[in-house]
Amino acid sequence: MAATSATSNPNIKTFRLPRKTEFGFLKVTLEYADRLSFDIIHLKSAIRRAVQDLFGECGLARINADILKFDESTGCCTLRVDSREFLNLQNALVLFGNFDGQQCRFKIDQVSPFLLGLDSNSRADYD
Prior knowledge:
The structure is a single chain. The protein is an alpha+beta fold and 127 residues long. A hairpin with a 4-residue loop joins strand 4 (65-71) and strand 5 (76-82). Helix content is 26%, strand content 34%. It starts with a strand and ends in a 15-residue tail after the last strand. The protein is built from two helices and seven strands, in the order E-E-E-H-E-E-H-E-E.
């Protein structure tokens, strides 16, 4: 990180984060019309199939999504992906609609360049 002087006072410094981050983070829910629960292996297979359907074998080799957190009861997970492939993964998940002969969809709940950004939701209804 580069430090720059905010004023003529040398004791006061401001730090700027780099514009490009290494990873992008997504909070995603896999939803089925008639299936209630599934495990993390099924989720990872669905993500890989979504990428393969849209980008083929080359895209599957290039786009790697890591599952950081998974809730089996809701099907919600937190994904980490390289920032250069962030939009490609997001597009693959949005366009995915059928896995193992069953209708399904990925609902993208939140996206953020920082993992901490997924912890807070500015659009939540606070009472």
